[in-house]
């Protein structure tokens, strides 16, 4: 299969324009990365200590969660952080690519994603063990806010794909 970029020269790539508002995209991406570190420090610093979960254990057992509400909250915080990091790098990558075409729109979508992730984290870590059995926590903590982050996330993925396609086509035409 032929390389679609084979006809491009380094000079073509060097001529790519970066919009002045791209710094907003970089700032939003940096905040997303810092938020991940903040969640990680909170888990290790306060949630783990309150739950009395020793290293190297990643989660409390079900028995610990039934007896100790802090252990259940620790598990929720761990799972929330894991879910965040699973989505973080595709999100930041999409922001960095799509931001070359639409820096303001990407910044707004990135901030919306971060706000939804924060709300999700707060809701998810405020559930009680008994709520899970009755699925009461799922209505808000796992139901409403995922839509709040999936919409901006998938919109950004779409914008990144269309931006990449447009850039390749422009470079090929040059």
Given as residue ranges, the uncertain stretches (5+ residues, pLDDT < 50) are 134-138
CATH level-3 fold name: Four Helix Bundle (Hemerythrin (Met), subunit A)
User: How many domain units?
Assistant: 1
- The residue-averaged pLDDT reads 84
Which outline best applies? elongated
Give a verbal description of the structure.
This protein is an all-alpha fold and 174 residues long. Helix 4 packs parallel to helix 7 and helix 5 runs antiparallel to helix 7. The longest helix is centred in the C-terminal third of the chain and has 38 residues. 29% of the residues are buried. Its main location: membrane.
Provide keyphrases for this structure.
174 residues; mainly alpha; Four Helix Bundle (Hemerythrin (Met), subunit A)
Task: Summarize this entry quickly.
Helices cover 79% and strands 0% of the residues.
Give the topology, please:
Layout: H1 10-14, H2 22-51, H3 62-67, H4 69-98, H5 103-124, H6 129-134, H7 136-173
Helix pairs in contact: 2-4, 2-5, 4-5, 4-7, 5-7
């Amino acid at each position: 299969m032929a390389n679609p970029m084979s006809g491009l020269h380094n000079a073509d790539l060097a001529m790519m324009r970066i919009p002045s508002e791209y710094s907003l995209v970089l700032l939003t991406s940096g905040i997303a990365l810092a938020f991940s570190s903040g969640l990680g420090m909170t888990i290790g610093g306060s949630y783990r200590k309150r739950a009395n979960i020793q290293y190297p254990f990643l989660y409390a057992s079900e028995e610990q969660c039934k007896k100790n509400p802090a252990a259940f909250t620790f598990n929720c915080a761990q799972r929330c952080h894991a879910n965040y990091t699973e989505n973080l790098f595709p999100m930041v990558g999409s922001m960095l690519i799509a931001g070359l075409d639409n820096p303001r729109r990407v910044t707004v979508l990135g901030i919306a994603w971060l706000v939804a992730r924060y709300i999700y984290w707060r809701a998810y870590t405020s559930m009680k063990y008994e709520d899970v059995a009755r699925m009461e926590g799922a209505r808000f903590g796992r139901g409403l806010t995922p839509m709040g982050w999936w919409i901006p996330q998938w919109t950004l993925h779409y914008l990144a794909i269309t931006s990449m396609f447009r850039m390749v086509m422009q470079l090929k035409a040059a």
